[in-house]
Amino acid sequence: MSIETSILEQIKKSETIIIHRHQRPDPDAYGSQCGLAAIIRNSFPTKKVYQVGENVHGLAWIAEQEEIEDDIYKDALVIVTDTANQPRIDDKRYMNGHYLIKIDHHPNEDPYGDICWVNTAASSCSEMIVDLVNAAAGELIIPDDAARMLYAGIIGDTGRFMYDATTPHTMCVAAQLMRYNFSATKINQKLDSIVLPVARLAAYVYENMTLTESGAAYIVLAREVMEQFAIKDASTAPIVPLMGKIIGVKCWTILVQQKDGSFRLRIRSKGPVINELAKEYSGGGHPLASGAFMPDAEKIPEYIKKLDAIAASYDDQTGESNE
């Protein structure tokens, strides 16, 4: 029995299904979680299906999260999408169900759950949800709204098909979803649009970033800068790709100071592997897209030195590390 079939069997035998995703969600977290919920509701109308977690204003156009009582978890199937490790799961009640399934496309360093389906070759968890439907041989049916959510998730995690994780299979899945009744153009435009404060912050990033001779770029966004532009950390996602657009930049990091003085690191790369560096700073993720954390500014110089070393060791021509 394939792992997809095992997941389908658990869905079919469960009357209550609760779907979680990671904290500080992105479009793929929302799309895979809420898209799967919509698919199960459409395919099995008598089942009780819930999507839980903190509501994020900027992603409300994809879907809304639900508040449920603790006792609903009794005998429930819990599915967690797009979440590599347990500390990042939004809503810690995920352990209160009868059965737990992990569906994810990040490196499987925390293989939790009774079923753990991880495909690191997938562009996104939303792509995996479509694969699950296709493997179900007609027992799972995608409604139009679920197709919209899943397409948004794929677009979000591939940077509109610009990142290395985009494969021929990704394009086939996207084409399959585009046959449903929603506007792919509007979703592309939505994910490419920014509000005026973010546009002004983008200009600040370009004006104040540092680029080393080795091709490592970085900027530290202190609290006073965030307050100056009236920007919250959750709204900084559109500026993350900016430094990567510059010729000569190999890898880069945006360090955003939080209210408690700590820093959230958004680390990206056009070739050098950076997730091992992220692990050194309480983080992790994909080889070319990771996140990390620092309790204060003390270790920033050390971190930048290591990022620069990674860039210096990478050969743009061969795509290999010189170490």
From TrEMBL:
<dbReference type="GO" id="GO:0003676">
    <property type="term" value="F:nucleic acid binding"/>
</dbReference>
<dbReference type="Pfam" id="PF01368">
    <property type="entry name" value="DHH"/>
</dbReference>
<protein>
    <submittedName>
        <fullName>Phosphoesterase, DHH family protein</fullName>
    </submittedName>
</protein>
<dbReference type="InterPro" id="IPR051319">
    <property type="entry name" value="Oligoribo/pAp-PDE_c-di-AMP_PDE"/>
</dbReference>
<dbReference type="InterPro" id="IPR001667">
    <property type="entry name" value="DDH_dom"/>
</dbReference>
<dbReference type="InterPro" id="IPR038763">
    <property type="entry name" value="DHH_sf"/>
</dbReference>
<dbReference type="Pfam" id="PF02272">
    <property type="entry name" value="DHHA1"/>
</dbReference>
<feature type="domain" description="DHHA1">
    <location>
        <begin position="233"/>
        <end position="311"/>
    </location>
</feature>
<feature type="domain" description="DDH">
    <location>
        <begin position="17"/>
        <end position="154"/>
    </location>
</feature>
<dbReference type="InterPro" id="IPR003156">
    <property type="entry name" value="DHHA1_dom"/>
</dbReference>
